[in-house]
Amino acid sequence: MALTVGVIGPEDLVQRVIAVGPPSGTTLVPLPYHHETEAVEVVERSHEKVDAILFTGVVPYTIATEAGVIDRPAMYVSYDGATLLRALVELLRLGHNVTQFSIDTLRRSEVLETLIEAKMPTDQIYVLPYRPGLTSDDIVAFHRTAREKHDTKVAISCLGSAFHLLENEMPSVRLAPSRYSIRSTLQALVLTTTGQHVGDAQVALGVIDLPEPDDALAADLITLGGSLAALPDGRHLVVTTRGVLEQATEQFTRMPLLDHLASRHSTAYVGFGVGRTAAEAEALARRAVSRAASIGSVAGVVSMSDDVEIVIEPTGDQPATARGPESLPLLARRVGLNTQTLARMRELVATLPDGLTTQDVADHLAVQLRTARRVLKRLERAGLADPIGSQQHGRTGRPPTVYLIRL
After folding, report:
1. pTM of this prediction?
2. Rg of the Cα trace of the chain?
3. Cα distance between residue 24 and residue 267, in whole Å
4. How far apart are CA 304 and CA 369, in angstroms?
5. Which domains does the chain have, with CATH numbers?
6. What is the per-residue pLDDT across 208-243, written as a single tens digit (0 to 9) for each?
7. Contact at 8 Å (CB) between 284 and 304?
8. Coil, strand, or helix at residue 179?
């Protein structure tokens, strides 16, 4: 299976990864940026180009993860002990004192373990581990403080933007990942991505239970790209794959098939099973359709082999505002959020009926921005939120998106 991996990071490190070369059957696509703050934008531009993403370090990976823009397998190249030792040897060769230095991004335990193994003193080593929200300015300030207060002799940075600010002020070195780290991370990423693609190809069987024959059913199932057969008990069997089913149901959040069936039948139950074998998928599908019959007059359920059961109910052709507020328990099952969160969101929508931003949600729910983004994403996938523009006035940088919420 041919895979395409996007490599995201500063230009020089991206080229370092490209030079190592891809695993067999894999193509590497360089996606460099000038500053790590551009990582989110680069990820968003890469969605149609790559199957997986390799970040050249933990900083851009964390920034993209916090922004909630990673929707495919992604890993970052770690800076292992060999990387640090190689830098220290180079500093020694240049005549620098490597017993007094400050270093950022790496974990303190990782740095000390490497130095202890090399039989080097650790009492004058100052470490700033990376954490979400840490900026290049914070890192530069850390190294300056270490020099002023502790008389450190060298600054070692894993962040290019920080290194370029420091190199003219004090002896500095920038860490770059070793070829071994790059190669091993690439191999792990390819294995993970291949495994996910295999999961997409898992067999998915559906059982449809209707009160009377339906000549239009075959046309409704075109989006599933599978086959339809009649079962001896009068129900219908659908054969497709997990990947196609996810796409047709918008990641198991909506099932247009239910709306079509609801318009023609008084009752309609759809159950899909996703399993490792056809027999397992069929057993799960029969369990799912029975579960659907216990929910209401029209319902769908997707059951998986790891005891995951997703309830999907019809959305109807009319907008939610015309149908009236949906009950919170039903809405919670459909969207995948708890009832308390949805109740708080309804409160917020009542105060901001013309649109709200991620920051509005974060402030109202008292959660971090990444959590607020996930809430909005779930509502959007369920057809309850639409981006309608952005807030431009009185702001610098990237303007926040405004969402219209229908709850």
Report:
1. 0.52
2. 27
3. 52
4. 31
5. 3-77+180-196 (3.40.50.10330), 81-176 (3.40.50.2300), 201-312 (3.30.70.270), 336-405 (1.10.10.10)
6. 999 999 988 988 888 777 788 899 889 999 998 888
7. yes
8. helix
